[in-house]
Design a protein that fits this description.
334 residues, Alpha-Beta Plaits, 4 strands, 63% helix, elongated
Length: 334
């Protein structure tokens, strides 16, 4: 019988599994491997699936037959191992065959990223003080004046006006405004909403930073790489909207893609750490996204992206709304 030799925890939330695979189990897969290979091999004088064993071995070599047979055994045995040992894997495992000979027990080492062990901070003790902090969201007259001055400069630049004024004619071009007074009032209101939104985001960052600081976990490399992929795509999209490409950016910055990603690594690691901790709090507090809200958001998305996969949309929206619910829970400071 094949068996587990050892399971070792490695840094960065990785596990090494050493296995011994009995030669009899490998040999038992030989007929199915040969049938499969026979279908794939095209040789003059033989119909597909009818190539004799000795011809297949002569063409591909005994080592290839053994490797394919071992792979079939592992496809069945490895899932049983991770289920039995309750190993929560992430991504594809890295398999190294250290010994494989006909008639002998094979030695295999599998390394796989796993969901990290988490020592979660006492967020109920950390967050109340931060949640109760008051933010300055009142809009000053200076902020309104500064915003209007920026608009005047914009008008001078676009219309070639020497000394622009905020006229009724101009503000009506900007939107549905009755007059300058109406525009000024709504400008102040919008500035207030922007300040409130920024204050809310700043507080959430502060809360999450505090939880990250007092929590302990080793983040899997695969999740960091996935986050870096996401950041690269986001950056490329931003550049594209500005009429540039990522290739142009790399050329102008004199950096390779690897160097750019390394610059972002610390930020990516922090993002992943925060994501994992929010999910952990959701599990601990049994916080779930509202089903009706998920459905509502999916329907809205489908209007803009009718060809998008609904299952992926559901997962994305559920994740987003769950994290929003966690932040609302933390903001209560209870």
């Amino acid at each position: 019988m094949s068996k587990i030799v050892s399971i070792t925890k490695l840094p960065k939330s990785e596990v090494e599994i050493k296995l011994e695979i009995e030669s009899s189990e490998i040999e038992a897969k030989r007929p199915s491997v040969l049938r499969s290979l026979s279908q794939d091999i095209k040789m003059d004088g033989f119909r597909p699936g009818k190539v004799p064993e000795d011809v297949i071995v002569a063409k591909l070599g005994e080592a290839t037959i053994l490797e394919e047979a071992l792979e079939e055994v592992l496809r069945e045995f490895y899932p049983k191992v991770i289920e039995e040992k309750k190993i929560f894997t992430l991504g594809r495992p890295k398999i190294a065959v250290t010994s494989l000979e006909k008639g002998k027990t094979a030695q295999v080492i599998i390394k796989t990223d796993v969901y990290p062990e988490i020592e979660l901070a006492d967020y109920k003790k950390i967050t109340p003080k931060i949640a109760k902090e008051k933010e300055e969201t009142e809009v000053t007259e200076k902020e309104v004046t500064d915003a209007i001055d920026e608009l005047k400069k914009y008008r001078e630049k676009t219309e070639g006006v020497e000394k622009a004024e905020l006229t009724e004619e101009f503000v009506k071009k900007l939107g549905d405004f009755k007059d300058v007074a109406d525009f000024t009032a709504k400008l102040k209101e919008n500035l207030g909403k922007e300040k409130e939104l920024k204050a809310k985001e700043d507080k959430r960052v502060k809360i999450l930073d505090a939880i990250i600081k007092d929590s302990k976990l080793e983040i899997p490399e695969i999740l960091v790489e996935e986050e870096l992929d996401k950041m690269t795509n986001e950056f490329s999209s931003t550049l594209s909207r500005q009429g540039f490409t990522f290739e142009q950016y790399k050329k102008e910055s004199k950096k390779t893609e690897e160097e750019v990603r390394n610059d972002w690594r610390e930020k990516a690691e922090k993002r992943v750490r925060g994501e994992i901790l929010l999910i952990e709090i959701a599990k601990k507090e049994n916080i779930k996204a509202d089903h009706d809200e998920i459905h509502k958001e999916i329907e809205t998305l489908k209007k803009h992206y009718p060809e998008a996969d609904e299952a992926r949309m559901h997962a994305f929206i559920e994740d987003l709304l769950t994290k929003e619910a966690v932040f609302k829970f933390l903001e209560k400071g209870e």
